[in-house]
Structure formats: structure tokens, C-alpha cells
Write a structure and sequence with these properties.
By secondary structure, the protein is mostly helical. It has 20 helices and five strands. It has helices spanning 2-10, 12-31, 44-54, 56-64, 68-71, 80-95, 97-103, 107-137, 152-180, 185-196, 198-206, 212-235, 271-280, 282-287, 294-304, 307-328, 331-340, 352-387, 390-394, 397-427, and strands at residues 237-244, 247-249, 252-254, 258-264, 343-344. The strands form two sheets. The protein has a three-stranded antiparallel β-sheet with strand order 4-1-5. Strands 2-3 form a two-stranded antiparallel ribbon. Helix 2 (12-31) runs antiparallel to helix 9 and helix 6 (80-95) packs across helix 7. The chain starts with a helix and ends with a helix.
Length: 428
């Protein structure tokens, strides 16, 4: 892998994309430490620490924002408004026929959907910013904005506008990485957020109790042991044999070769984990509007942690695994393409029978993959209840899945661009 990274830096075009990606991620991490104008910085961390100890929802939201929420920074909204907007738009494509047809129009349709996603992100970010303003002014943070000397209404507008601008800037950063860098911008930003809290979590885990050092070493060893299993899952695939019939084109005989149709065990990648997390932490984001409403905060905490969170996590991960797989892999289109190219699955009639066979194989292979994802995500949360170790909460199954999946996807894109460059040199 290190050799591949060195080879990538030797290629000018790929080196530029890598440096652009790294530069944007560094700027993002700097922005996570820049406080909103007028925020009294002293005493902020102690108030947040007390809040996060009693409110698990805040702790989880802070994890996915890379600590920006606890610092009341310009990036405190994080990437969640953009992810939520993408979830809504993808689900709407399956419900609204016009959006579904737009998605099939190719690049022009995708540009329109991307534009709608941006508008929806701005709306969701504005709503979240107003909610966070209520949170910061509540007893949880108890931030007094009157010390700035500005009218309260003007100061509230500055705070909301700053958070909204930060969310729009994060969305732009993610899209720039996706379009001009290496990897998926949204996933890489989440990756950077999780990694940023790792050193602090390890230190806190060592200092947790008398058994802190031993427990930390055990957790690290378990993580190292789980990573190969996740890689095996990500790389695993079901290969459906495909035979191409011989065709006579002029004086040449075409086709006749045997190949296979690869179906990944985890076709959806880390998307089910990210989407399920966004849905489960949505009540926590709504609860910040009503910091003094006890039942709403209790519900947000129950959905964010505990047995209800575990059950819903499994259900949502399995659901989004099937849902996203159906969005990116269409058995009917695959069967039609095979038929037009003269290909067929041995023992299966072309057309509808082939589509049904591929759909059945896809359904059977997605179920165990999605259940494995769900178990990896939920089991560390259960262990955290009994150990109360900060390293498990910040670097548990969900975090590992996201990080390994993002790393594999980024490396795959880098390898494909290296191969393209090598082939380009051959034909020059």
C-alpha cells in the first residue's frame, strides 16, 4: 500500500488531487477550532463536558462533528445536514416518479438532483443552526451573548448566519474533494472527524480507572483483529458465471468466452451505517430546539443510546443496505444488457428469468452482509454500557466500519487512476 501511495505521488495529476484532498481536510480541521464570533471561550469546555456526561445524544453529535460542537465553532453543524439532504433526495427518487426519471437522464439529471440537494441542505442547516442557538443559550451551555455589547437579536442573527455559512462551506469542501480530489468528500470528512478524536479517547481510556491501561490494550487488540474481517467483507463477492454466445460479424467470429458477473457482499459500502446514524441522531438535533422539554430529550437520548438504539440500528442498517443496493444495482437493466450483448447465465433463460435470478442472488448475499455490518456497529455500543470506556464510544464498530470502508474506497480510486495513467503512457 505504501508503495502505491509513493507511486501516486510520482504522477503529477494524481499528486495534485491528493494534495488538494489533504489541503481541504486540513482547512476543515482548522475551521473546527475557529469559534463563532462573540462566543466567550473560557469555561465552555467544562460546561460541555458536564452536558455530554449526562446527555449521550450530545456526545454522539460531537463525535460526528469532530469536536466542533463542543467548541461552538463555525463548523459545529458538521456534515450531517448534507448527509440528511442526500438521504431525503435518494428516498424521494424511489417515491416521486419525476425525480426517478430525472435520475435516469444521465449527467444533466444528476446535476439537477445535486442542485436540489444543495437547496435542501441549506434549509436543513438553517433549521439546525436555529436549534443549536437555543441549545447554546439553554442551561446546558448557558452562554451569555450580552457580554459582546451587541443587541441580542443582532447577536442571534450573527450566530445563526455563521453556522449556516459554515455548513455551506463544508458542503462545498465535500463536493470539491469528490469532483477534483481522491475519494468521496462526504465520507472523508467523517473519516477526519472520527480520527481527530482518537488521540484524546486513548488518553482518556488510559486514565479512566485502575484497569484503564489493560482495558485500552485489549480494545486496541480487538480493533486490530476486527479490521481484517471488515476488509474481507468489503472485498467479498459472489461471482455469477456468464457465457457469451458466438456471433459471426463479417468474416470474424465474436464472443464465445466465459466470464462472471461480480456481486459484492456489501454493495452499499459504508452508506447504510452513515444513513442509519443520521436518522437515529436526528431526534437529538431536533431536541436542541427544546432543551427544557424533558420528554423530548429523554426520547432523543433513548434513540441515541441504549437497547432502543441497538434495535433500530440493526433494522435501519439492514433496510438501507437493501435500499441503497437497489439504487446502485438494477437487476432488470443488468439482465437486459446481458441479453443485448449475447450473454446468458448457464441454465437460466435470458430476460425476466435472468433478472429474477440476479435479484434472488443479490437478496441472499445482501442479508448476511448487512447483518454483519449491524453487529459490528451495535456490539461495541453494548460493551460501552458495561465498561463506560470513552475509546469504545468514539472508536467503536460504526467508526471502524466507516474508517475502513472509506480507506478501502479511497485506495481503490487511487489504484484505478494509477492504472489509467499507466495505460495512457502505453498508448502515447
Amino acid at each position: 500500500m505504501l508503495k502505491g501511495i509513493l507511486n501516486a505521488f510520482r504522477v503529477k495529476e494524481i499528486r495534485g488531487k491528493l494534495l488538494l484532498t489533504i489541503g481541504i481536510l486540513v482547512l476543515y480541521r482548522i475551521g473546527a477550532y475557529v469559534p463563532i464570533p462573540g462566543i466567550p471561550f473560557q469555561g465552555m469546555f467544562s460546561s460541555y463536558t458536564a452536558a455530554s456526561d449526562s446527555t449521550s445524544a450530545l456526545a454522539v453529535l460531537n463525535l460526528f462533528s469532530g469536536g466542533a460542537l463542543s467548541r461552538v465553532s463555525v463548523f459545529c453543524l458538521g456534515i450531517m445536514p448534507y448527509i440528511t439532504a442526500q438521504i431525503i433526495m435518494q428516498m424521494m427518487q424511489a417515491v416521486v416518479p419525476s425525480l426517478g426519471e430525472m435520475a435516469k437522464e444521465g449527467e444533466a439529471g444528476q446535476r439537477k438532483i445535486t442542485q436540489y440537494t444543495r437547496y435542501l441542505t441549506v434549509v436543513l442547516a438553517l433549521v439546525s443552526a436555529i436549534g443549536y442557538l437555543f441549545l447554546y443559550k439553554s442551561s446546558t451551555y448557558n452562554i451569555d451573548f450580552s457580554s459582546t455589547g451587541l443587541p441580542d437579536l443582532l447577536m442571534d442573527f450573527i450566530v445563526v448566519f455563521t453556522m449556516l455559512a459554515g455548513a455551506i462551506l463544508i458542503m462545498w469542501m465535500g463536493e470539491i474533494i469528490t469532483q477534483r480530489g481522491i475519494g468521496n468528500g462526504m465520507s472523508l470528512i467523517i473519516f477526519a472527524n472520527i480520527m481527530s478524536g482518537l488521540p484524546t479517547s486513548i488518553i482518556e481510556s488510559f486514565q479512566n480507572s485502575d484497569n484503564g491501561p489493560l482495558l485500552t490494550i485489549i480494545i486496541v487488540l480487538v480493533i486490530i483483529a476486527v479490521v481484517p474481517l471488515i476488509v474481507y467483507l468489503e472485498r467479498g463477492q459472489r461471482r455469477i458465471p456468464v457465457q457469451y454466445a458466438k456471433r459471426v460479424v463479417g468474416r470474424r467470429v465474436m464472443g464465445g468466452q466465459s466470464t462472471y458477473l461480480p456481486i459484492k457482499v456489501n454493495t452499499a459500502g459504508v452508506i447504510p451505517i452513515i444513513f442509519a446514524s443520521a436518522i437515529l441522531y436526528l431526534p437529538a438535533q431536533i431536541a436542541v430546539f427544546f432543551p427544557n422539554v424533558d420528554w423530548m430529550n429523554t426520547f432523543a437520548n433513548a434513540v441515541s443510546s441504549g437497547w432502543l438504539n441497538w434495535i433500530l440500528s440493526v433494522v435501519l442498517i439492514v433496510f438501507f443496505a437493501y435500499f441503497y443496493t437497489s439504487m446502485v444495482f438494477n437487476p432488470d437493466e443488468t439482465a437486459d444488457t446481458l441479453r443485448k450483448q449475447g450473454g446468458f447465465i448457464p441454465g437460466v433463460r435470458p430476460g425476466a428469468a435472468t433478472a429474477a435470478y440476479i435479484k434472488s442472488a443479490l437478496s441472499h448475499i445482501t442479508l448476511p452482509g448487512s447483518i454483519f455490518l449491524a453487529l459490528i456497529a451495535v456490539v461495541p455500543s453494548i460493551v460501552f454500557v458495561f465498561t463506560n470506556n470513552s475509546l469504545i464510544r468514539s472508536f467503536g464498530g460504526t467508526s471502524i466500519l466507516i474508517m475502513v470502508g472509506v480507506a478501502l474506497d479511497t485506495i481503490s480510486q487511487m489504484q484505478s487512476q494509477l492504472k489509467t495513467h499507466d495505460y495512457g503512457d502505453v498508448f502515447k
